[in-house]
């Protein structure tokens, strides 16, 4: 018998709702009220999310975010700023004690990201995990130099055709792992660069030149245009196969939705949370 996990496809949601729902699912799972969950979602409006430890004022050009009508939210997970626009976002909520779940963050990340790997392969792309091969690169991971998420390959980063395609981040709270990340369909380099503060035009130009070699979207790699529905099928099947689970569609109860709304209003919609650093 395969383990049954819940599957939620939220579609496009507001930034505050997306983060509140991820946290609510973590809480519900920690209380034993729901099994592990895999959730897919999108963003409306397009949103810049920053990592838990980032400084909005220091790293982000908030006027540019506003001028372009972008949403803005701080994630409960670490990592760097991500522009969520042409993408499918996934989240995985599972107990640290889950059968055969490695104790270390790095190894657990590899196990959970296996579903992404198979998802990319289901779309006909050559995907594999990259492991930093030098001490210098490993040191870079501990001390990231840039605010832009796609600037540094991390441990077991997912690489397709030699370039990073899915930026993921993880947090552990209440004995539960929350891992979420972006599967890029298309990437607007200029828009991404426009929302960051750079110390000089030269630094911005360097980043502009580096981005195409670092971050790549699925539709830059394939002749046929891949859609969100195709991605949902490919990655849903990828997670089922890689984790040896059966995904059961789930809809939250009225009470659970009320809890999400409460988290959204008291946390992810507040300036205190989003701009506190």
From TrEMBL:
PROSITE patterns: BPL_LPL_CATALYTIC (PS51733)
Gene giving rise to this polypeptide: lipM
Known EC number: 2.3.1.181
Oligomer status and interactors: Monomer.
Active-site residues (renumbered): 149 (acyl-thioester intermediate)
UniProt miscellaneous comment: In the reaction, the free carboxyl group of octanoic acid is attached via an amide linkage to the epsilon-amino group of a specific lysine residue of lipoyl domains of lipoate-dependent enzymes. The reaction proceeds via an octanoyl-thioester enzyme intermediate.
Entry keywords, A to Z: Acyltransferase, Ligase, Transferase
Domain BPL/LPL catalytic: from-to ranges: 32-247
Site features described as Lowers pKa of active site Cys, chain residue numbers: 164
Pathway terms, separated by semicolons: Protein modification; protein lipoylation via endogenous pathway; protein N(6)-(lipoyl)lysine from octanoyl-[acyl-carrier-protein]
Catalytic activity of the protein: octanoyl-[ACP] + L-lysyl-[protein] = N(6)-octanoyl-L-lysyl-[protein] + holo-[ACP] + H(+)
InterPro entries assigned: aa-tRNA-synth_II/BPL/LPL (IPR045864), BPL_LPL_catalytic (IPR004143), LipM (IPR024898), Octanoyltrans_LipM/LipL (IPR050664)
GO biological process per UniProt: lipoate biosynthetic process; protein lipoylation
Function statement: Catalyzes the transfer of endogenously produced octanoic acid from octanoyl-acyl-carrier-protein onto the lipoyl domain of GcvH, an intermediate carrier during protein lipoylation.
Signal peptide coordinates: none
Protein name: Octanoyltransferase LipM
Keyword Phosphoprotein found: no
Coiled-coil positions: none
A GO molecular-function descriptor: ligase activity
Family, similarity comment: Belongs to the octanoyltransferase LipM family.
């Amino acid at each position: 018998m395969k383990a049954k996990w819940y599957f939620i496809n939220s579609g496009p949601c507001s930034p505050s709702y997306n983060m509140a729902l991820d946290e609510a699912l973590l809480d519900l799972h920690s209380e034993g009220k729901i099994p592990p969950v895999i959730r897919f979602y999108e963003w409306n409006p397009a949103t810049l999310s920053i990592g838990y430890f980032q400084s909005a004022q220091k790293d982000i050009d908030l006027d540019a975010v506003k001028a372009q009508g972008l949403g803005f939210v701080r994630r409960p997970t670490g990592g760097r700023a991500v522009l969520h626009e042409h993408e499918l976002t996934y989240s995985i909520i599972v107990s640290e004690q889950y059968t055969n779940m490695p104790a270390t963050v790095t190894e657990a990340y590899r196990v959970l990201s296996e579903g992404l790997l198979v998802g990319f392969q289901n779309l006909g792309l050559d995907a594999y995990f990259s492991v930093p091969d030098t001490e210098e690169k490993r040191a870079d991971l501990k001390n990231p130099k840039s605010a832009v998420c796609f600037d540094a390959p991390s441990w077991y980063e997912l690489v397709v055709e030699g370039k990073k395609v899915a930026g993921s981040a993880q947090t552990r709270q209440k004995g539960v792992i929350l891992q979420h990340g972006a599967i890029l369909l298309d990437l607007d380099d200029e828009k991404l660069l426009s929302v960051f503060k750079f110390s000089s035009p030269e630094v911005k130009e360097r980043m502009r030149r580096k981005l195409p070699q670092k971050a790549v979207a699925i539709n830059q790699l394939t002749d046929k245009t891949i859609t969100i529905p195709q991605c949902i099928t490919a990655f849903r099947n990828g997670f089922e196969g890689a984790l040896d689970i059966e995904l059961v569609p789930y809809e939250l109860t009225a009470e659970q939705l009320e809890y999400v709304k409460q988290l959204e209003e008291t946390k992810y919609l507040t300036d205190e949370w989003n701009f506190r650093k």
